[in-house]
Structures are given as structure tokens and as C-alpha cells.
Amino acid sequence: MKNTGENAKSDRQVSPDKLLRAALLRGRYADVIVKARGILCQGGDKQEELEKLQKEEKERLLAEGNAAMEARRAEAEAESKRKRDLEREKARQALQEMERTVEINDSVDPKDLEMLGTVTTEHIVSSVDETSPEHSQDGMPSFLPGSGSMLEKLGLFMKVDEEEEEEEPCSKDADEGEIN
After folding, report:
1. Residue 109: closest CA among 145, 141, 154
2. Where is the composition biased (Basic and acidic residues) (predicted)?
3. Start-to-end CA span in the chain (Å)
């Protein structure tokens, strides 16, 4: 005897998506399925027994569809949690890498860091002379501990701006907007 319909066990593998789709369709059309089975079984059964079977079948189909939807929802939640955890781990690793690159070098003296913003023009002129390649023995700027601030050791100096030249005085006779 050959099995047919939904009770038949198939020898082939069916994807979970197809099973979900089938359960949803059975749930959606449960009324139609139950009525069709009722018409086929009407041969000698009592009406009450038929209605009871129809009701049970409809409930089973709806429960199957709801279970499939719940399984799909749980799978989606698990996938989103995996993605969130992966993103958090990547962010944590990026933060740790950033912290490693930003660590302050122990050889930098805090006094040198304070001097970065408090340099006078006399100090700039004297340190330019001290660190200029012409005044060093090997032609390279000197980076000795007492030779200036940290910025100067790195070759950065404050530029001394000369006062801007006075603008030429305009003729006293001309009014604003008047062409001479």
C-alpha cells in the first residue's frame, strides 16, 4: 500500500524553508482541507463525529503553523544575537588595538608635555640655534635632553610673525564708495 498526502514519509530531504512554507499553507487553508476531508469521509460517518474530526484537524494544522512560525522567529533571534556578539567582539578588539597604539611612551617626561604650550620667543630663538644642523657636529639637529621642549625635539617650532605692515592711508578727500 502506498502512502499519500501529508502522512506519507518521503525518502528525500526537504529544506526547513519548504517545511515552514507547507505548514503555513496548511494553517492558512485548514478550513478548506477539513471540509474536503469531510466530504470524502461522509460515506457512513455520523455528522457529530465528522465535525469533531474537522475541529481537531483544524486545531492541529493551526498549531503546526504556529510552531513553524515560532521556530522561524527563534532562529532569526538567535542569528541576530550571533551577529551582535560578533560585532561586539570586533568592536572590543578594535578598542583594545586603539588603546595599544595610544599608550603614552614612558620616556616622555610630563614636564616636557607641559612645556609644549608654554614656550617663549626667547626660548624659541635659542633652541633654534641649538638644534640647527649648522651648529651640530654631524649636521643633524641635536635631541639632547636639555636642548628644548618636546616639540622642538621633533623639529616643530613656533613661527614668529612680524607685525603686519600699516595700510597705506587713503586720501582724506574721498568719501566711501567714491571713485577718484
Report:
1. 145
2. 70-95
3. 116
